[in-house]
Amino acid sequence: MKHHILHGAGLALRPALLAPLKSRAPDNLQFLELTPPDWIGIGGKVGKDLQQLTQHYPSVCLSQSLSLGGPGVLDKEVLRDLRSFIAEHGIQVFSEALAWSADDTPLFINLPIPSTREAVKWTVSRIAQVQEALGLRIGIRNVMHHMAPTLVEMNEAEFISEVVSASGCSLHLDLHALAANGLNFGFDPHAFLRALPLGSIDYVRVGREYPLLGDVLARTHRRVARCVDDVKQLNLEALTC
Amino acid sequence: MLNDFRQYQFALARHLRDPLSVSAPEGADAKAAAACTQEMVKHLRDVLEPAFPITQALLGEDIWEHAVRLFLKDAPNHTPWASTTQRAFVDCLVARLGALRVVAKRGQHRSSAVACLQCQRRCDATRGGAQPHACGSSLRVARAQHRHRPQA
Q1: What is the pLDDT of residues B3-50, one digit of tens each?
Q2: What's the number of domains chain A is made of?
Q3: Per-residue DSSP letters for B124-143?
Q4: Is this prediction's ipTM beyond 0.90?
């Protein structure tokens, strides 16, 4: 099992950020985060610019395209495209949404996986298939939802913990999504964090949720790579706490 | 209630793609499902609009949104990348030209009331018929009321 080498602060790269980043990159930028739908199949000048950046910085792939808990079969074409994307840009860390986002074709939304024991088994077996197809250990990430899960046998934190312990993958935290879900569905994000297997976390998307980041860093002794959405946020001291 | 969680997911997906013709599976919150459909349309528009600014302008807001919803409903097989989604959308537009023409004609002949393109509910403002639409659209209700407010 290869452990990744990311550390410090990263930036979620969007196509609009290519030009400013090319002209002047912030000094404390350590890595980039790429969302595959924005970049796969894009060639020309934009493709070349991206290639130059990923040669210079280590990269994380922030995917939500595999529909990990989805009812259909895993899309082999998506897996193949992701595998070549990983090879092309030297991706160090692969993060996939713990959600479902397709029946037999994309739904353009992340939906909560029904939290049943059967769904845990199903998701774990699909994580194993993905890891085998991509040839690396992946991390699963909590995402923002627009509806509460149905067929509930356990709460979301328990579901995440069961999937992580049964699959052996790492846990990636999206604090912005966690805070938004807490607000929408009326739960305490700090309590939610306490129920997660924080020892499995090696990657955190911060957004603007610095108090929650404090919670995570206080409870895990591992080195955690942190990613923000905005170039301006990279300079905040809070990121290095 | 569907026992198998995957059956439930397939049923929910069919409802989200076409909320008017396919009812929600038992246990699904109708309001949350409508919000999900809205979010799907919004996300899909974010993917498609940068690629087709001229088509979007030529079709106009109502027909464009109808085309996006038709694409969701038809669910042609494609990968989730922006480039392949845009290509699949073009194929869908071509295949569905007939349906879009009907929508366009209906738009031209709006008279005393306006039909919501999605749920076909007619908004008769003179009788204060501003009921929530099954498709979750409130924009079109507001617009219909505005157009047909009786002269004071």
Answers
A1: 589 999 999 999 999 999 999 998 899 999 999 999 999 999 999 999
A2: 1
A3: -GGGT--PPPTT---HHHHH
A4: no
